[in-house]
Amino acid sequence: MSAYPEERVAWEQQVERLRQERPTPLRDAWYLLSRNKLALVGSLLALFFALVGLFAPMLEPHSPARQDLFNTFERPFHSWHHVLGTDQLGRDVFSRLLEGIRISMGVGLLTTLAVLVVGTVAGMVAGYYRGWIDTVINGFVEMVWGFPLILVAVIIAGAIGPGLTAVIAAVAFINWAGFARIVRGEVLALREKEFVAGARALGKGDVEIMVKHLLPNVIGSALVMGSYYVAVAIIVEAGLSFIGLGAQPPTASLGQMVADGRNYLQLDHWIATVPGITIVLVVLSLNLLGDGLRDVLDPRLKRER
Asked: CA-CA distance, 254 to 164, in Å (whole number)?
């Protein structure tokens, strides 16, 4: 009997050690993400651009709208005063680039967050209740999904005037339908599972079932799609700004910077190529992030591993 307390202490220590060594959800997610090197690079790049956009006003060495007509077309790295040179109006390209990243990431992230909430709620309601509710919501989703995004943006810009408001309204009007379709399909399959039937048998309400039991099972797919839609929103914002329907001067935009430099590509190409390369890197990083989120959050891939 005297050895029993010692054995119990040893057993408890072993259990505690195993508990500490057991992967936590965050550690497990980091492990899965780190296995995909491209996804890891994309995640770090996306985080970098998000931080740059957040702190852009503090990082800008000059005002993005400040003109200096006596110092136009300065080449990149010619002086530390203008690291990436100046454009045709003498504006600092580096400051305008930071401002453009802030605009693009802001439009992409905030718009996608809003439509993620709306689309997820609509898809869950349609998939859970089915019947006439599903018919109405799904019919509206199909109608909205049939409109080309650029066409909607042009129509809205013509109705309310060019600017970021038109870009946000167009992206929100179309993209929520994508979330609703994905979430509805998953909820239709999940609502017949045993854990949902068990929750109903315990007397839990519909809202509690959707929030506590269905939402955790569909949020992964919604987040993966969200990373793609952030990239789509950034491309749409850049495209509309390029043709003059997006951000308006003096606000700097990556698409607008490309448009401003297209007439100087032969001699002063950096005015257009620097923001153009930035758009490519931002979109590429978000797509790679989406691949990484799919590896981490998709339960089917987890089962295959």
From this structure: 13
Diameter of the chain measured on Cα atoms: 93
Taking the alpha carbons of 44, 46, 49, 55 in that order, is the dihedral positive or negative?
negative
The CATH topology of domain 26-69+77-304 is: MetI-like fold (1.10.3720)
Fill in the amino acid letter for 235: I
What is the C-alpha separation between 229 and 117, in angstroms, rounded? 13
The CA distance from 47 to 227, in Å, is 12
Residue 13 has pLDDT above 50, yes or no: yes
Average pLDDT over residues 210-237: 88
Per residue in 81-95, pLDDT (tens digit) is 899 999 999 999 999
* Cis check: omega of the bond before 23, within 30 degrees of 0: no
Contact 103, 246 (CB under 8 A): no
C-alpha to C-alpha distance for 264 and 58, rounded to whole angstroms: 30
Residue with tokens 């590429």: 284
pTM: 0.83
* Domain boundaries of the chain, sorted by first residue: 26-69+77-304
Beta strands in the chain (DSSP E): none
Give φ, ψ of 86 to 5 degrees.
-125, 165
Cβ contacts of residue 112 below 8 Å, gap of 6+?
A: 175, 226, 229, 230, 233
